[in-house]
Structures are given as C-alpha cells and as structure tokens.
Amino acid sequence: MESLLLVLDLAGILVFAISGALLAVRRNLDIVGLLALAALTGLGGGWIRDILIGAVPPASLADWRYLLVPVIAALATFWFHPAVARRERTVDVMDAFGLGLFCVAGSLKALQFDVGPLSAILLGIVTAAGGGVLRDVVVQRVPTVFGPGELYAIPAAAGATLAVVGHELEFPATPVAIVAATVAVTWRLLAILRGWHAPVPRA
C-alpha cells in the first residue's frame, strides 16, 4: 500500500503542478510565480489532508521527492510549453488527471489513519480539490470546484467512493486504484468536453 500511495501522490503532484504552471504562464507570471503556483497546486491538497488526519509533518515536507516533482514540472513548463499554456482547456485536462489521482490517494491514505469510510471519502475530495482551490484563489479566479454547476467534486466523490469500497471489500489495491482514478478522470473530462453540469437551483 505504501508504494501505491507514493506513486499516486507523485503522479498527482506532477499533473497538478503542470496545471498550476500552465495557468501561471497564461497569467504572465515570472519564473518565481510559476514555481510557487506549481508547488501550491501540486502540494496544497496533500498538505490539507495530512494536517487533518494528523500525518505531520506532511509527507511533502518529509520526503525530498515530493518537493522535487513540482520543481521539475514547473521548469519543464517554463522552457518547453509556453504556447500550450495559453489554451484554457489544456489546464483543465491536466487538472482532471490530478483530480482523479488525488481523490484516490487522499481516501486511501485517510483509511491508513483509521478514519471511517465516509470521512475517507470526504478527505479524498478535499485532497483532490484543495490544491486547485488554492491555485485559483492566488490568481484571483473563482475556484473550479465552486463554479456554477461544475462537475468537479462529484467525479472526485465517485473516485474516492470506489477506492474506499474496494478497500473495505479487500479487493487488490492497485486495480481498485486504477479503476477509481479512471472513473473520476473520465467523468471530469467528459463533463468538460460535452458541457455536462451538475443540477443548479431554478431561477
């Protein structure tokens, strides 16, 4: 389980950091701003999760690999993909992959700290959305998770629920994680591409 969580965490940090770096390029931030936004996006959700479950110091501050990944992602984005970063959908696609990876990693790590299934699902959603919320607040835009009718938290909840149910039923951890993350990513990407929205109150 430890190795699986490490892979999920590092992969989630990578794609979320790229989404933060791409957004930084779109907002014409300099290299310092790009590094900061990439790190905040990639690590923010994990910080919130680890503090809430009492895993302190957070894993990203205790293991150098967690800090290296957003730096590499930011520098690669800075040098090789400035034009791509100006396309809003690219940021959204990278964000969707981060959402899927982190909702699973967050819920599975929460279960390791003996929280209940419902709390683990909630922490999976918090892990998935936390970094993106911090990123959007810093660049002064409405966080994606709070967009009107935005299908963001619901796919994260679906992925986290599948991960928790699979764990409780003692299914093999890796296949469960892959299926759960795939469901969350696919749902989020289809919502972006097809314009699906969650129900909103009638005017």
UniProtKB/TrEMBL annotation:
One cellular component term from this protein's GO annotations in UniProt: plasma membrane
One of the Pfam families matching this protein, by short name: Gly_transporter
Source species, domain of life: Bacteria
UniProt entry keywords in alphabetical sequence: Cell membrane, Membrane, Transmembrane, Transmembrane helix
Compartments in which it is found: Cell membrane
Membrane-spanning parts: 6-25, 32-52, 64-81, 93-112, 118-138, 150-167, 173-193
Entry keyword Transmembrane: yes
Major site of localization recorded for this protein: membrane
Domain (Glycine transporter): residue spans on this chain: 7-81, 93-167
Bilayer topology term: Multi-pass membrane protein
Record InterPro entries: Gly_transporter
Family indicated by similarity: Belongs to the UPF0126 family.
This protein's name: TRIC cation channel family protein
Species this protein is from: Kribbella sp. HUAS MG21
